[in-house]
Design goal:
The protein is an alpha/beta fold and 388 residues long. 29% of the residues lie in helices and 14% in strands. Helix 3 runs parallel beside helix 6 and helix 6 (219-232) packs parallel to helix 7 (253-270). The longest helix has 18 residues, at 253-270. The relative contact order is 0.16. It binds flavin mononucleotide. One of its GO terms (molecular function) is FMN binding.
Length: 388
């Protein structure tokens, strides 16, 4: 991304709107510029957050991130796409995360833990068990496990017998996140993972109380959020990607609108800190039978009016100028950036001081890849900041 902020017409766009503090749940974040969850595959082999991860998050807190969302963090030892994504199911992981939240807080930022279960997208290692609402294998994405040895494709999952077993795992992880010093938790309800699978008729064909109507398909997300609220109160949030496409997700438009309007309205009644709307990304949406797998539509316009209490954040291809405009017009309270934070540790400071966003993303190093002997620091903690 190369954006000349100096070239922006500062007469028509008030960028200072991005730097107003905001109450999110019961904490105040210093600005409206969040850092979105990004898996970077730099934990240790026992899925322990590493010293290097601490450096990475500290760099971005010092760079002015108002609210940092941790990379997706496993709530239990089920398999993931990567061998080095972190977990939060045991006390060693809690202690390691605490070192990270401590330095982030010292640098003036707040941090949420993104709680993650992959459902049918899990790798069958380490215990051979892959669960989903229904026994439907995710299609496509044959490269999905290319960072791992062994099985390379998604497998047919077992239908979850009692979803409350999984709800409890989310709650236990929230208890651990609290002990680790996080300010809240974001439930990963996007990108085709477990919570999303319950919402989506292409992964959920259950005929019990957890499938069928929008009311029943949204039940799992609501139960998870309620359970986490018992731990964190209002400091619980949800990320959703109704437009789908990624990881074999997505429904026809009317079914999508019916499902997600019901979801956000019910979620909003629970009292969440924020709801994050992850916009459609054409690059992550495969063409299947000549058309897109996903259902692109305007998320802020479609769902914003159904969210009355929770703050609305938007993520996905947002530019600083667009962010300021969305906030000025009160369509959203704040924004998350993903890739721009990845390659600019000082993103918020650059925006504030009108500096260029000119660090190119080192694509081959997005996920480290220890199997290939890649130095985990490269393309992770070595992006330069500018001098102020
Ligand atoms: C390397 C990488 C890893 C990501 N990992 C996650 C993740 O763990 N959890 C998640 O919710 N989104 C993940 N995302 C999506 C981002 O959070 C964000 O929603 C997306 O990149 C769109 O924002 P952007 O256009 O500003 O990059 C990831 C994106 C990238 C580029």
């Amino acid at each position: 991304m190369s954006t000349s902020l100096e070239a922006a017409d500062s007469d028509t766009m008030d960028m200072s709107l991005l730097f107003q503090p905001l109450e999110v749940g019961d904490v105040t974040i210093p600005n409206r510029i969040g850092m979105s969850a990004m898996s970077r595959n730099r934990a240790d082999p026992k899925r322990m957050p590493s010293h290097l991860m601490k450096k990475y998050y500290l760099q971005r807190a010092l760079g002015g991130a108002g609210l940092i969302i941790s990379e997706a963090t496993l709530i239990s030892p089920h398999g993931a796409q990567f061998d080095r994504c972190p977990g939060i199911w045991n006390s060693e992981q809690v202690a390691a995360w605490k070192k990270i939240t401590n330095v982030v807080h010292l640098a003036g930022s707040k941090m949420y833990c993104q709680l993650w279960h992959l459902g049918r997208l899990s790798h069958p290692d380490p215990n051979g068990m892959v669960y989903s609402p229904s026994a439907i294998q995710a299609s496509g994405e044959k490269y999905c496990f290319h960072y791992l040895l062994g099985e390379l494709d998604f497998v047919v999952p077992s239908a979850i017998e009692d979803p409350f077993v999984l709800v409890k795992q989310f709650k236990d992880a929230a208890v651990n996140a609290k002990a680790a010093g996080f300010d809240g938790v974001e439930i990963h309800g996007a990108a085709g993972f477990l919570v999303h699978q319950f919402l989506d008729t292409s992964a959920n064909i259950r005929t019990d109380e957890w499938g069928g109507s929008p009311e029943k398909r949204t039940r799992f997300a609501l139960e998870v959020l309620k359970a986490c609220k018992e731990v964190f109160g209002i400091n619980v949030s949800l990320k959703i990607s109704p437009a789908g496409g990624f990881n074999d997700s997505g429904m026809p438009l009317q079914e999508t609108l019916d499902t997600y309007r019901h979801l956000v309205a019910e979620v909003d009644k629970l009292g969440l800190s924020y709801i994050s709307l992850y916009r459609h990304n054409a690059h992550k949406d495969p063409i299947v039978d000549g058309k897109r797998r996903g259902t692109p539509h305007d998320l802020v316009a479609s769902y914003g009016p159904y969210i009355k209490q929770s703050k609305i954040f938007v993520v996905g291809g947002v530019t600083p100028m667009e962010a300021a405009e969305l906030i000025r017009t009160e369509q959203v309270a704040g924004v998350f950036f993903g890739m721009p934070w990845l390659s600019h540790p000082d993103l918020a400071k650059r925006i504030k001081h009108g500096k260029n966003l000119d660090n190119l993303v080192a694509m081959p190093f997005l996920y480290g890849d220890t199997q290939a002997g890649v130095d985990p620091r490269v393309g992770y903690t070595d992006y330069p900041s500018v001098t102020y």
